[in-house]
Each structure stands twice: as structure tokens, then as C-alpha cells.
Amino acid sequence: MKTEGMTEDEINARHAEKMAKKKAARDKILATKTLQKGLLIVHTGKGKGKSTAAFGLVMRALGHGFRVGIVQFVKGRWETGERAILDKFADQVTIRTMGEGFTWETQDRQRDIAAARAAWEAAKEMFKDPAYRLVLLDELNIVLRYDYLDIQEVLQGLAERHPDNHVVITGRNAKDELIEAADLVTEMTMIKHPFRDGVKAQAGIEF
Amino acid sequence: MKTEGMTEDEINARHAEKMAKKKAARDKILATKTLQKGLLIVHTGKGKGKSTAAFGLVMRALGHGFRVGIVQFVKGRWETGERAILDKFADQVTIRTMGEGFTWETQDRQRDIAAARAAWEAAKEMFKDPAYRLVLLDELNIVLRYDYLDIQEVLQGLAERHPDNHVVITGRNAKDELIEAADLVTEMTMIKHPFRDGVKAQAGIEF
């Protein structure tokens, strides 16, 4: 805002006018948004915050009293901090941890494929049940990337879910077909990371 | 992975070899990360998930039993879902809501400046106290963008905080000076948004 030569009153008046216009524009847009449906949400990109934002959505849904399903395609992806919280909502949340570890830690492709298949079957069970207002498929993208599950089969399962179910899928390298099918896609981009400066993973931040 | 003409056993063997190399490289990198310090984290960009990921970090810290401080620079930014959860951790979390509403809803610049100043003073109180392992300054970036607070004053306050305190700052249009000072910066980019298709804000997803 260029304010040289303006009095404080003039700055305030111009600000009020500008904000009134913004509010009118925003209200007009909101009035056109009337549809309600289960959303397919994807968090991808190389930056941090994909699973953390999904965890935030889970907590928000739990706060509303909703039932939530979580399927972890990579074991150990969620750590002590999250587990301690989720344990407090055991009556609202169902967690299925099917992966056997990061794929680069197991080095056993057949076992990883079997785990991915079992996790996907657990997800499809949740899709049938309208009680699950939110289903989180954590790190499904990594499984799709390695072709442990067929993308077309996954898209079909998502399309056949109960129409009220919101689904959140996380993981870098989301497939184009998934992005195409999704309602809301956010890419987390890493601008700066403390690992570069030799800082180690810390409780409460990384796990 | 090009797998034409390979047997299933050959594919599995090559996969195991590739993953073993990845794991070795990753372990080597992790061994060099030994520093521990309070991080300055920024979530910016026009996409969704900035405050939601911060809320996820808050919940993770609460799961570890840490004390958490939250300063909301824009009132009403966090809604019923989050509040219902945070109320369950009232003994661990201190919330100071200082803003009077989205700036485009108040249209009163002087009142917004006073609210921003009060919020910043609350944040500085938390910075002095090592008990606050995590301090969230929600939507501080919007306040800095409108120059309601001076960026240099904010940077100085951040630099003077207790060295163990992690700080998370959210909001689009993070100032370059803040990005420069931060340890970890994630930009949330909107790839796709259901608003485009007329879908309204829904409980558990938007609030």
C-alpha cells in the first residue's frame, strides 16, 4: 500500500473501503457454493506436512464427533506423538497398520505387495460404511508409485465408496490419474529444511 | 522400473538390491544429523493445509506431553472441530485469541493494529518460558503483510526466544525476511480446489 503523503485518517479510510470490497466479493463467491459431498483430498509434494495436515484433518473430524478410519500403508509412518493422541479417541477411530516398514528397509517386494493388498482391502471395508465420515489412506501414493497396487483398481474403489465419505490420500509423487480424480489437491513444496544444517529429527516436530 | 523380459524372481532381486542401496544412503545421511535446537517453522503458500498441518504439530507435541502455546492473530481462524479437541488438553495448552476477525470483515485498521500488537505481546511472554516447547503463531503472516507489526521487531523477538522453543508461523505471503530466518519452510500450493465446482465448506474438512 503506497501511503506517502497520506494522513493516518486517509490511510484508515482507504483500508476500510478496500476491505469492504474484498468482503463483498468473498460473500458473493460463498453464496454460490451449495453442494455437499464426500471429498477426495490428496496431499502430495516433496515438502513436509502431508501426513501432519492429514492428521490435523483427522483430529478436526474427531472434534466434530465423527468416526474416522486410518489405513497406514507404510508401518511406523506415524510415531509416538500421534499414537498417544489417537489412543485417547479409541472409540471413534479405527487404525489399520498394514505396511511392514519403509520399502527401503524391508527389501522384500513380495511381502510389501501382500501388505499393500491387505491395507487396500481394509480401506474398502471402511468405504462401505457411511459411519466413517473420514478415511485417511496414509502413504498410499508410495504404494501406487511402486505399482504394488493398480491405480485403476484404486480409482474404482474410491468411486464406489459411500458418497458421504471424505478420503484423504498422502504421499509424494501422486499419480496423474489420482490428481485428475481428486476434488482437492495440495502440493507441499520444501523451501528450506533443517537437515541441510545438520539438525536431527526431534520429538514433537518429526515424530 | 523397466521389467520387460525379467522373471518375477529377477524383479524381486533387483528391487531388494536397489532398496538396500537407498537404505545405506539414508542411514549415512541420518548419522550426520546430531544438532538439536528449537526450530523456526513457516507454513506458507496459497494452498490449504497451512494451519491444519500446524494443528497436527500441536497435537503431536501434546501427545508427547509437551506444553504448547497458541496465539491466533486472526479471530475465528480455528473452528469448532479444533476447539473441541484442544479443550480436552486444557492443562497443556494455552490459547490466546487476539484478532478481532478477518481484516476484510472488520474494516477497522486501527483496531486490527491494536489486536496484532496485543497478540505479539502474548507471544513474547510465551517465548520467555522454556515450558512452551511449541508456540504456534497462527496467521502471523497476514498481520506482517499488512504491516500491522514490523518485520524487524518480530525477527528480533523470535531470535530472543528460549533456544529450546519450536515456533510455527502460518499464513500465505510469508515475508522474504522471515523465510530467510526460518529453519524449515513449506509452501502449500493449491493444485485443485472443490470451490471451483460449487462445493461448499463442510464440517470436518474446512472447519
Automatic annotation (TrEMBL), chains A, B:
<dbReference type="GO" id="GO:0005524">
    <property type="term" value="F:ATP binding"/>
</dbReference>
<dbReference type="GO" id="GO:0006779">
    <property type="term" value="P:porphyrin-containing compound biosynthetic process"/>
</dbReference>
<keyword id="KW-0963">Cytoplasm</keyword>
<dbReference type="GO" id="GO:0005737">
    <property type="term" value="C:cytoplasm"/>
</dbReference>
<dbReference type="GO" id="GO:0009236">
    <property type="term" value="P:cobalamin biosynthetic process"/>
</dbReference>
<protein>
    <recommendedName>
        <fullName>Corrinoid adenosyltransferase</fullName>
        <ecNumber>2.5.1.17</ecNumber>
    </recommendedName>
</protein>
<dbReference type="InterPro" id="IPR025826">
    <property type="entry name" value="Co_AT_N_dom"/>
</dbReference>
<keyword id="KW-0547">Nucleotide-binding</keyword>
<dbReference type="InterPro" id="IPR003724">
    <property type="entry name" value="CblAdoTrfase_CobA"/>
</dbReference>
<keyword id="KW-0627">Porphyrin biosynthesis</keyword>
<dbReference type="GO" id="GO:0008817">
    <property type="term" value="F:corrinoid adenosyltransferase activity"/>
</dbReference>
<dbReference type="InterPro" id="IPR027417">
    <property type="entry name" value="P-loop_NTPase"/>
</dbReference>
<keyword id="KW-0808">Transferase</keyword>
<comment type="similarity">
    <text>Belongs to the Cob(I)alamin adenosyltransferase family.</text>
</comment>
<comment type="pathway">
    <text>Cofactor biosynthesis; adenosylcobalamin biosynthesis; adenosylcobalamin from cob(II)yrinate a,c-diamide: step 2/7.</text>
</comment>
<dbReference type="Pfam" id="PF12557">
    <property type="entry name" value="Co_AT_N"/>
</dbReference>
<keyword id="KW-0067">ATP-binding</keyword>
<feature type="domain" description="Cob(I)alamin adenosyltransferase N-terminal">
    <location>
        <begin position="9"/>
        <end position="29"/>
    </location>
</feature>
<comment type="function">
    <text>Required for both de novo synthesis of the corrin ring for the assimilation of exogenous corrinoids. Participates in the adenosylation of a variety of incomplete and complete corrinoids.</text>
</comment>
<dbReference type="Pfam" id="PF02572">
    <property type="entry name" value="CobA_CobO_BtuR"/>
</dbReference>
<keyword id="KW-0169">Cobalamin biosynthesis</keyword>
